[in-house]
Amino acid sequence: MHIMNAQTQKSLLTLGGVILIGLIILGFVKYKNLRADNIKLTSTLSVKEEDLLKTNHEKQELTEALTNANATIETFQGQLNGLSSTVGTLVKLKETDPELLKKYSKVYFLNENYVPKGLGDIDPIYRFEKTKPLQFLEKPEPYLYRLLDDARLAGLDLSIVSAYRSFAAQSGLKSTYKISYGSGANAFSADQGYSEHQLGTAVDFTTTKVGGNFVGFDKTPEYAWLLENAYKYGFVLSYPKGNSYYVFEPWHWRFVGVALATRLHEDRQNFMDLEQRQLDAYLVNIFN
Ligand SMILES: [Zn+2]
After folding, report:
1. pLDDT at 183
2. How much distance in Å is there from the Cα of 153 to the middle of ligand 1?
3. Quick check: 78 and 263 in contact, CB under 8 A?
4. Which of 58, 101, 226, 257 allows an S-S link to 286, with CB 3.0 to 4.6 Å?
């Protein structure tokens, strides 16, 4: 075993010490650098976090603004829809002849120059006399045809004997009645009946058996069917049995629209029983 001399031992210790100190210094430097980096990173991180918070806040504000804008658009859209539906109603009302739901009486009747707009020829298959032309307002004509088709499907024999009549034609008719029936003509074809045929929305029905003079029409199954079903097609009996406005005319039916006819049927009321303003409320939807 060799024993190191004291000198060598001392040198080695010194060297070890120097290395150790060097390592400590290096470690310290490294530590300081790392710490500096850490501080820098931490501060960068906090800046980024602040940015992120700010961004999130801005995002929230933008979302709120967007929601508000959408709500405003929706409100405008709603107002616009309401407005266009009002305009639509007004246009529809403007295009609908206000005379169509007027009550005619001895004091209020149509002007002699009144001619309805949109008259059309009635298909011969629905006429009592195939060769005699008849006219009805074109818009409610499909309702009239459906009524007659359904009556025929029910095994009934219903046809139209009279429809649109001009003021002149009606006056002629009245004087004929006057010649035939004398002063009683007023009870058979008075002023109210005039106006409704002049409108182009009133018809006189008959059956083959009853014919053109209507005698006994109120005893037919066709009349009973009309009483139960005509309202479904928008037709009402203008002068029912026992009414106070005019003589009973079981053959004379007027188109007033499905809604009004249904209401009158359900309430067991007559057209003439309602106030004019109540009737006018149904004008806008008369052809629905
Ligand atoms: Zn009539």
Report:
1. 47
2. 24
3. no
4. 257
First to last CA, the chain: 127
- Looking at residue 137, the DSSP 8-state letter turns out to be E
**C-alpha of residue 128 to centroid of ligand 1, in Å:** 14
Q: Residue 259's pLDDT is what? A: 98
Q: Which two tokens stand for residue 154?
A: 């029910």
Residues 29-74: tens digit of each pLDDT: 898 999 998 899 989 899 999 999 999 999 999 999 999 999 989 9
- Ligand 1 center to 10 CA (angstroms): 145
List b or e across 16-53, with b for residues whose CB sees 16 or more CB atoms inside 10 angstroms.
Answer: eeeeeeeeeeeeeeeeeeeeeeeeeeeeeeeeeeeeee
CA quadruple 15, 18, 24, 27: dihedral, nearest 10: -80
Tokens at residue 39, please? 């501080």
Distance 183 CA to ligand 1 centre (A): 19
CA of 265 to the centre of ligand 1 (A): 20
Ligand 1 mean position, distance from CA 277 (Å): 24
Q: What is the pLDDT of residue 185?
A: 45
| Residues sharing a CB contact under 8 Å with residue 258, sequence separation 6 or more, in sequence order | 143, 231, 232, 233, 234, 288
State how far the Cα of 277 lies from the Cα of 232, in Å rounded to an integer.
23
192 CA to middle of ligand 1, Å?
10
